[in-house]
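Continuing the batch. This is chain 6 of the set; chains 1 through 5 are on the previous pages. Same settings as before, nothing changed between runs. Recording input and output for traceability.
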Amino acid sequence: MTDLRRYFGIGLPPGAGSFTGSRFEHLAGGGDRPETADRITAEDLIAVQTLSVTVAAPCALDLLEGPLGHRMSDLLAAIPTDIDLAHVDTAVVADDAPAEQAWRLLESQHGLGWVTAGKILARKRPRLLPVYDRVVRCALGRPRPFWLLLHAALRENGAELHHQLLELRQAAGVPPTVSALRVCDVTVWMKHRDLGHACP
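Output for chain 6:
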């Protein structure tokens, strides 16, 4: 709970500041707001920068104005916005589902890579698709396939883990607009980072 409060700047003295990633979901109203849920915006590309990644200008322009952006819009339109990972059917995050196709499309772009691809999708579907970077991968032992394993863990025992994450969010005073997935990510990331683990 302390790590969550520190990350989101809850209870810190004036000027102490929070981590820039605390704005990831909320910047400009969020990536899943109805008017922009099915397209990549400039605000989305700024939001991923709060998580310490950058989309190179050629790829950014293609996402905003080119054929890559149109292909992403078609895929995003097939990915639900209004449901948590704990409550969707396995098919939504399975191989060859639109979410997986969108990740592969982004990951294949020159200079983008799997971390940034995942963060873009987490921005667009924060309740459904997790932030997953090298620190989290290191902390969890490089599980594969991550989405499916996390989905199974969140659904186990009547979605017990999902409810525990929501309870942790409430106890820490984190806004309810922060998804259970983001609570999970921040908790794991902060703990592993503070332990000083070097993750390739």
